[in-house]
Amino acid sequence: MDRAERVKQILELLDKNYGPVKCYLDHENAWQLLIATILSAQCTDERVNIVTKNLFKKYPSVRAFAEAELTELETDIHSTGFYHNKAKNIISCCQSLLSLYNGEVPSDINKLTALAGVGRKTANVIRGNIFGIPSIVVDTHVKRITKLLGLTDSSDPVKIEHELMDILPEDHWISYNIQIIAHGRKICVARKPKCEICFLSHLCPHITPVIKSTT
Ligand code: SF4
Fold first, then answer.
1. Rounded CA gap, 148 and 141, in Å?
2. Is the C-beta atom of 113 inside 6 A of ligand 1?
3. DSSP of 12-71, one letter per residue?
4. Is 117 left (phi over 0), alpha (psi -120 to 50) or beta?
5. Percentage of the chain with pLDDT > 70?
6. pLDDT for 24 beyond 50
7. Does the beta carbon of 195 sit less than 6 angstroms from any atom of ligand 1?
8. Distance in Å, CA 96 to ligand 1 centroid
9. What are phi and psi of 165, to 5 degrees?
């Protein structure tokens, strides 16, 4: 089977098994998703959603975050880890949103990545989920599983992003990330992929054989 056919079948199976996609980070608008995504670095989405539930009540606007007191915000987001840098970045990012963009979140990738705490991954989350601009988010799940599926040889997220843009149809750019995260959580888990129940196993060159116990 050639690669194009394999990609087509992988996408069909991802659609079938994980269905329509929804962003895992709870948010009601662009700036909330921006802050939730900054908080999600090295933290689970579940933990971020627990923290933002109260956080967005306490700080109900970009201005409220821009004017937040650093140590107080650090305490508020403490359980997401790396709280000092995250709090500093959130305040600085929101100050820039106010001074440069009238409190709005821009859609331009260069403007987004110029904001404190916003890398290419975060920018693509915003572009894809808020503005519907086709973009491919390469996080640890996408990096690892794309490689296992033999769709890239690279470990460089930017290179993988561009390789995926070449082989995935544009209407799957946003969903691929979200479905692969689901796959990485449920089946292709990092420590021990459950290849024996994986619906992609017949398309995956890195299927792990089941070792039967002899005892
Ligand atoms: S077959 Fe195994 S390694 Fe390949 S995607 Fe499925 S779980 Fe991951």
1. 10
2. no
3. HHHHHHH-S---SS--SSHHHHHHHHHHTTTS-HHHHHHHHHHHHHHS-SHHHHHT--HH
4. left
5. 96
6. yes
7. yes
8. 42
9. -60, -30
Residue for token digits 């709280």?
Answer: 83
Strand spans (E) along 58-203: none
With beta carbons less than 8 A apart as the criterion, state whether 51 and 28 touch: no
Enter the pTM of the model: 0.76
Structural Rg of the chain based on CA atoms: 19
Q: Categorize the per-residue pLDDT at 21 as very low, low, confident or very high, splitting at 50, 70 and 90.
A: confident
The phi, psi pair for 186, rounded to 5°, reads -95, -40
Q: Are 207 and 20 in contact (CB under 8 A)?
A: no
Distance separating alpha carbons of residues 82 and 76, to the nearest angstrom: 12
pLDDT of residue 137: 87
b/e per residue 107-124 (b: at least 16 CB within 10 A)? eebeebeebebbebbbbb
| Residues designated catalytic | 121, 139
| Short-list 137, 125, 145, 159, CA closest to 39 | 125
